[in-house]
Amino acid sequence: MLATDWQSPGELVLARLKDSRVQQYWDPGHLLALRLAADAHDRGRNDPQPSQACCLSDNILWDLAALYPAGAQWKETLPPAIFFNGSIIGRRAELATALNGLLTVH
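The structure assignment produced for this chain is given below.
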């Protein structure tokens, strides 16, 4: 999400991620980002998320990538992520390493 995201993304933006496994959503109320932040910072959990280095503003996660193992399911709270950090551009190499590690395991 960007502060300039005032409307749903157009075709050019959506075309950036061409992998059929990618799902993109428009969340104008930031409901998902608020819930992600709440679940990520719930220190009472037995399986907390990795701590992200940035991206929290008004309790909303911005420009954050989350990578989950195959079969992970969000039930009462988020499952632990393999990678949970941003900014996406700033953490591109780390995200690629985490993704490559996941792909070589399976």
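Interim note for the steering committee: The chain has one domain: 11-105. The chain has three helices and four strands.
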